[in-house]
Amino acid sequence: MSPMTDQVAEITQGYTFEEHALELGVLMADGEPRPDATIRIPLGMLNRHGVIAGATGTGKTKTLQLLAEQMSAAGVPVFAADIKGDLSGLASPGEASEKLLSRTRKIGQDWQAKGFPVEFYALGGQGLGVPVRCTMTSFGPTLLSKVLGLSEVQESSLGLVFHYADVRGLPLLDIADLRAVLTHLTSEEGKAELKELGGLSTATVGVLLRELIGFADQGADLFFGEPELDTFDLLRTTSDGRGVISLLELPNLHDRPKLFSTFLMWLLADLFHDLPEVGDIDKPKLVFFFDEAHLLFADASPEFLQTIAQTVRLIRSKGVGIFFITQTPTDIPDQVLAQLGSRVQHQLRAHTPNDAKALKQTVNTYPKSAYDLAEVLQRLGIGEAIVTVMDPDGSPTPVAWTRMRAPESLMAPTPADVLRPGIAASAMMAKYGTEVDRESAQEILARKLEEGAQSAAEQEQAKADAQAAQQAEREEAARAKEEAARAREAERLERAAQREAERQRRAEEREAERQRREAEREAAREERARRNEKSVLEQVAGSSVFRQFVRSAGREIVRGIFGTARRR
Predict the structure, then answer these.
(1) Average pLDDT rounded to a whole number, residues 437-447
(2) Residue-level pLDDT at 66
(3) What's the whole-number average pLDDT of the chain?
(4) How far is it, in rounded angstroms, from Cα 460 to Cα 553?
(5) CA-based nearest residue to 326, from 272, 257, 376
(6) d(Cα 140, Cα 162) in Å, to the nearest integer?
(7) Which segments of 30-188 are extended strands (E)?
């Protein structure tokens, strides 16, 4: 037996399981496929997680499609992010071609065109699918802090804000609600409440507001709201027992990587919280495929990476498997990569020093084998991969150069006009299609602000009315005082006039009395004068001189009258 024959036998034995397994493809030996050496992955080990890696155009998406088909057929629900829209072909039967059938015959695949039950979702309703939303309260401060890359102090502060909203009956449904609460706490109306919270500074609130604005700019505002997705709806099976494949449309993921990581972490956290512990089971309850995983980890904070690693490690016991799809395994942090039990590595290129470094690092992550992996990984054809999975005993299977099976569904996007009727008729669309905008924190605070403004206006008006009344009272009092003053002045003037009149009367009386007295005195004087004069005359007349004068004068008068003269 040749060394190659021994190698084929060893590898074949390593992929022979009693348990139900999914068929990945067949072993490549001496450049040719070996239909007798089937490469498989045990169904019960899918919850030990895995990675699908390879350069662009090497077949990663087709491998994802292949696995999703077989999981669905085995009754395992699947969730996958449809980055480029290629996975929508899962809903439609594949199209046979001579090239395809020639390939499938060489690997012993009995190819049959099949379509699978697919439910299409879109974040926030931006796309054809059923809108996917979650409330800010459900997302919670811890997960939000991790996504935003907040410090421990900022995370603690954010927790206080959520607690405040809960205590005050302020539902946090979307980013606008959280921003409204933060804005309220830094307003004049909320400063007292902010102080009561303790440990929450206005500077921290400012940081949180800025982070939320940036978060919303990445499209996160579309994700938060109602009705909230019930993650148990991702665990559905059809009436014939097939698992429903849930495809999330993410056409602009490269522009909004944080939105993708946000949804991922909420979805896993919600499932982890709600699902019971099941341990090792025959088949997983749900398997996630996260395409373009490097975008998930790009610029992620250490706290966020730690959260992802912890979630990946613990969710296995809930019966949930996770497969990351990326270009090189080195895109995935070591703490996460170490927990991925199954690996499907498509072609790697070493055209640049960084490529060569990534190739070397990838080779070092594989178990020892007879392959020169550094060479083989560069020689792999499209649809070929280096495979190692975890067997039911928990050990890695031999490294196998594998020609992958072909998907039986359409290996191209399903036309939108074909998808629309099924999406519109979906029970999920009836459940989640219409956005609910019930009263939440933003509206409550706005109403309180309006009521406060109205109350303030009413108080201001009442104050103005009181001031006007006081002013009117003051003016009335001033008028009364002025009138009283005028009355007092008039009274004073009247009294003064009266006094003046009385004074004048008295003066007149005094003058009249004076004049009377003066007249009396004058009369008395005249009387005295008359009496004095008479007395003088009498004295004169009585005197001998006067009598002699009179006699002489009388004689002179007589002489004059009669013409007689005095003799000389």
Answers:
(1) 85
(2) 97
(3) 85
(4) 120
(5) 257
(6) 8
(7) 32-42, 50-53, 78-82, 118-123, 130-132
**Residue type at 216?**
A
- Beta partners for 551? none
Q: Specify burial of residue 17 (Cβ count, 10 A radius: 0-12, 13-18, 19+).
A: middle
pTM score, whole prediction: 0.78
Q: Is the pLDDT of residue 530 over 80?
A: no
In whole angstroms, how far apart are CA 320 and each of 75, 128, 316? 14, 27, 5
pLDDT digit string (tens) for 543-552? Answer: 666 567 666 7
pLDDT for 2 equals 47
> Following DSSP, what letter does each residue of 307-345 receive, concatenated?
HHHHHHHHHGGGTEEEEEEES-GGGS-HHHHTT--EEEE
Where does 3-133+226-424+432-438 sit in CATH, by number?
Answer: 3.40.50.300
Dig out the tokens for 559 from the structure. Answer: 């002489």
- The whole-number pLDDT of residue 438 equals 87
CA-nearest of 338, 281, 382 to 58 is 382
In this structure, the number of other CB atoms found within 10 A of the CB of residue 431 comes to: 13
Average pLDDT over residues 73-95: 92
CA distance 511 to 387: 148
Domain ranges within the chain, ordered by starting residue: 3-133+226-424+432-438, 142-211, 442-562
List of residues 6+ apart from 88 with CB closer than 8 A: 82, 118, 120, 247, 413, 414, 419
pLDDT at 427: 94
The pLDDT of residue 349 is 85
CB 144 within 8 A of CB 158: yes
Q: What average pLDDT does the segment 556-563 reach?
A: 64
Question: How many residues belong to the chain?
Answer: 568
Question: Rounded to an integer, what distance in angstroms lies between the CA atom of residue 180 and that of residue 147?
Answer: 20
- The CA–CA distances, whole Å, from 552 to 538, 558, 559, 564, 565 equal 19, 10, 11, 14, 13
CA 116/CA 24 separation, integer angstroms: 18
Distance CA 339, CA 332 (A): 11
Q: How far apart, in whole angstroms, are the C-alpha atoms of residue 499 and residue 99?
A: 138
Q: How confident is the model at residue 526 (pLDDT cuts 50, 70, 90)?
A: confident
Burial of 186 (0-12, 13-18, 19+ CB in 10 A): middle
Report the percentage of the chain scoring pLDDT > 70.
90
- Among 260, 224, 218, 220, CA closest to 80: 260
* Distances 303 to 110, 306, 349 between C-alpha atoms, Å: 47, 5, 32
